[in-house]
Design goal:
Elongation Factor Tu (Ef-tu), domain 3, binds FE2/S2 (inorganic) cluster, 18% helix, 7 helices, 6-stranded parallel beta sheet, 3 domains, Rossmann fold
């Protein structure tokens, strides 16, 4: 979701030449072993530069185990400070792509990617004066790195505080880079590490974040007051739920909190939970999609999502996780009612504005029109 004043750019054309998502074949420039189980893949910017916003993600597409697999990975690079595009991948137990990439990819290879997407971003203005407090867990640091670099360089009067939770010292991704940034931007970046398993001589914090610990942590970072402070979080679901509860206990309003859900694409689709209450009946219904200057009409069966129906018919709509988390498939319902199996990826205000996710969406009325883009 977007925080700050970000407005998604309109991308429309009267007579599209290539309707559909935009794909690129990117050359791997370098692979960096960040920790024992995490790598960063640095892609060369093509001659026709790919523009992106800090906090967005790239969807990598690769043939794994005989089928095309897509996974979204947040960019750790900043469009303001880095020449190349870079994503970080941490191995996940039984993760198809997260194991295939470090095992197979090497410098010089080419990877197909979808254009950068995602709404966990903001607009930078040199006159902004804000305090961005970030909670990251494990590889949830990735979008934060991009946002930290951009905030520190684009907003001279803004500051960042990072509360970064990891299993142990060896699993801290970007430890050195963060130290360097703290030195370069003295007094404007505060990093506090919290470890599950701390070594004997550890001077910092350890264990699960608790109300007590968070109160102490907040005493160590500047207090700019609620109005000037924004709270961001990205990490494992358990950590984010815990942080949300703790912030609520500190009376931080929900509108000040923005989160990026992990996008692993491994959610068990058998346990969808239906969350949008509507009065409509689930039956085959016609859906109209407007995307990239084209209009598509098709019937969606009750046990199929809008996205899978479109893909089955060869309509090339944007998507990544297919789990209702990454928002790559987000569109705005201009009319009709859509029931979502999962709406974790959307903020309250996005839902109120009529945004839906086609990968987990079912039409509940016959007049559903969704605009994507
Ligand atoms: S494809 Fe990720 S939310 Fe729909």
């Amino acid at each position: 979701m977007a925080f700050g004043f970000f407005k998604k750019s309109e991308k429309k054309s009267e007579t599209p030449v290539n309707a559909g998502p935009h794909y690129y074949d990117l050359k791997v420039k370098n692979i960096i072993q960040e920790t024992k189980d995490a790598i960063s893949i640095v892609f060369e910017q093509p001659a026709n530069k790919i523009s992106y916003k800090s906090g967005q993600f790239l969807t990598l597409i690769a043939p794994v185990a005989g089928k095309e697999v897509r996974r979204a990975y947040s960019l750790n690079s900043s469009p303001f400070t880095d020449q190349d595009l870079s994503v970080t991948i941490k191995r996940v137990d039984l993760g198809l792509m997260s194991n295939w990439l470090p095992d197979n990819l090497k410098a010089g290879d080419t990877v197909k990617v979808m254009e950068p997407m995602g709404h966990f971003t903001t607009e930078y203005k040199s006159e902004n004066k804000r305090h961005v407090i970030m909670f990251a867990g494990g590889s949830g640091i990735t979008p934060m790195m991009s946002l930290i670099k951009s905030t520190l360089t684009q907003e001279p009067e803004s500051i960042c505080s990072l509360i970064y939770c990891n299993r142990d010292i060896d699993s801290i991704i970007f430890k050195d880079q963060l130290e360097k940034l703290q030195t370069t931007h003295a007094g404007r970046l505060h990093v506090i590490h919290v470890l599950d398993n701390a070594p004997m001589n550890w001077q910092g914090y350890s264990g699960l974040l608790s109300h007590e610990m968070l109160t102490k942590l907040f005493e160590r970072i500047p207090d700019w007051g609620l109005e000037k402070t924004t709270y961001l979080m990205c990490g494992p679901e358990g950590m984010m739920k815990n942080v949300e509860t703790l912030l609520a206990a500190l009376n931080i309003p929900k509108e000040k909190i923005f989160k990026e859900s992990f996008v692993q694409g491994t959610i068990d689709k058998g346990v969808r939970k239906e969350v949008t209450v509507t009065t409509g009946e689930k039956k085959e219904r016609e859906v109209t999609i407007r995307y990239d200057g084209q209009e598509y009409k098709f019937m969606v069966a009750p046990d199929h999502t809008i996205l899978e129906t479109a893909l089955n018919q060869g309509i090339d709509l944007p998507y990544s996780c297919q789990s209702g988390l990454c928002t790559a498939c987000r569109g705005k319902a201009l009319s009709g009612q859509v029931k979502l199996d999962e709406e974790e990826g959307l903020s309250q205000s996005e839902r109120a504005e009529g945004y839906v996710l086609t990968c987990v969406g079912h039409p509940m009325t016959d007049d559903v029109v969704i605009e994507i883009g």
